[in-house]
Write a structure and sequence with these properties.
CATH superfamily of one domain: Immunoglobulins
Radius of gyration: 33 Å
Order of helices and strands: HHHHHHHHEEHHEEEEEEEE
Strand content: 15-25%
Helix content: 55-70%
CATH topology of one domain: Immunoglobulin-like
Low-confidence stretches: 199-214
CATH architecture of one domain: Sandwich
Largest sheet: 5 strands, mixed
Mean pLDDT: 79
Strand order of the largest sheet: 4-10-9-6-7
CATH class of one domain: Mainly Beta
Structural class: alpha+beta
Shape: elongated
Number of strands: 10
Length: 364
């Protein structure tokens, strides 16, 4: 099943790359979803098996106590298993019935217990318990007493695990909260800081020139995506180990975090194929005054784009402009009459893609 999942994942991932013209940067946000599409059934099956084993482990002490009571009443060990097969132990009942059938077919009890242990090879708890009982049976000891001791030990272990799980459930929620806060910070960095430094420029402040290095938003967008994916995988695995004591259980949390991170990236960090450069106004404007908004629309390689449709929205009013051969657009807009900070949203649309930018003006 694992190999089939790999083939499906590879096929879906290849299809995603084909749809994006094998452009890794554009296809990267959807590649994790492609990988999950094929491997998800395998990991879901592993998790369901893990959950089933946990339920069987919880029922096992009760099963041992029933065998112990039967033996104390004078019933042989094999007959006690046959009698126990008529009692409902949840998922464990299926295994008890298998042992009962094998005993009825004349298979020796040690062989029956060994086969049961082999089927439970993924549960260290069950294998150890069966090994202790099998050794007591072979050595001729008091099997009923041994099973009672094993059942009591198993009960205590399960109580401790339940207590640990209840204590760490809060830690699990905290880990999810930390991951979501991490994504919010990444989105804030992309939305607030990067647009401020997306273009290399020289700013004059008080007669002094400050040179700013060139920052490519697409490069940092890729870095942000890698950070989100890496954080999702390892935070999920740690969450599984802390909350449920198993890396296998952590795969579930990794998958959930990958979906959350990918959706957040796609919807809140869209690819900017165009850059909009505007000098943010720092003055306080009178209410209802006219403000001349100017800016440039450039390609990602910083070359000007002409004939770009520019939409400017403020206070519910929309203005439109078009860039010239130098990528410059200019439009006089009427500012709102309400004092305070008001956002100006600029959207650029061209056959080569789209871009957006936001600035604030202070009215007082």
């Amino acid at each position: 099943m694992y190999k089939i999942g790999l083939l499906v994942s590879g096929g879906v991932t290849g299809l995603i790359l084909l749809l994006y013209g094998f452009n890794i940067d554009r296809a990267m946000p959807l590649i994790p979803m492609g990988l999950l599409s094929g491997l998800a059934p395998y990991f879901i099956a592993r998790y369901l098996k893990f959950s089933k084993l946990k339920v069987m482990e919880e029922s096992f002490p009760e099963f041992l106590r029933a065998l112990s009571e039967s033996q104390k009443s004078g019933i042989t060990f094999p007959q006690a298993i046959v009698n126990a097969s008529k009692i409902d132990y949840g998922p464990l009942s299926e295994e008890v019935k298998k042992m009962s059938y094998q005993i009825s077919w004349g298979i020796p009890l040690p062989k029956v217990l060994e086969k049961f242990s082999d089927r439970m090879k993924d549960s260290e708890f069950l294998r150890r318990s069966i090994a202790i009982i099998l050794e007591a049976y072979r050595s001729g000891g008091d099997v009923a007493e041994v099973m009672e001791s094993v059942a009591e030990s198993a009960r205590m272990v399960k109580e401790l695990e339940a207590e640990r799980k209840s204590k760490f459930s809060q830690q699990l929620l905290i880990m999810y909260a930390i991951y979501i806060i991490f994504i919010v910070i990444i989105i804030a960095l992309n939305k607030i800081l990067l647009p401020m430094f997306s273009l290399s420029a020289s700013q004059d402040t008080g007669g002094m020139a400050f040179s700013m290095g060139t920052i490519d938003p697409a490069f940092y967008r890729r870095i942000f995506l890698h950070m989100i994916l890496i954080q999702a995988v390892f935070a999920g695995l740690i969450a599984g180990q802390v909350g449920e004591g198993s890396i296998v259980a952590g795969i579930k949390h990794s998958g959930i975090m990958l979906v959350i991170g990918t959706l957040a990236f796609v919807f809140f960090l869209p690819s900017q194929s165009m850059l909009i450069s505007i000098d943010a106004p720092y003055d306080v404007f009178p209410p209802g005054s006219i403000y001349s908004l100017e800016g440039f629309v450039l390609k990602s390689d910083k070359t000007p784009l002409s004939e770009v449709d520019v939409e400017i929205a403020i206070g519910g009013t929309i203005y439109r402009a078009t860039t010239d051969n130098l990528g410059l657009f200019s439009k006089e807009i009427v500012l709102p009459i309400d004092p305070g900070l008001h956002k100006i949203e600029i959207k650029a649309t061209h056959s080569s893609g789209k871009g957006s930018y936001k600035i604030e003006v202070s009215i007082g």
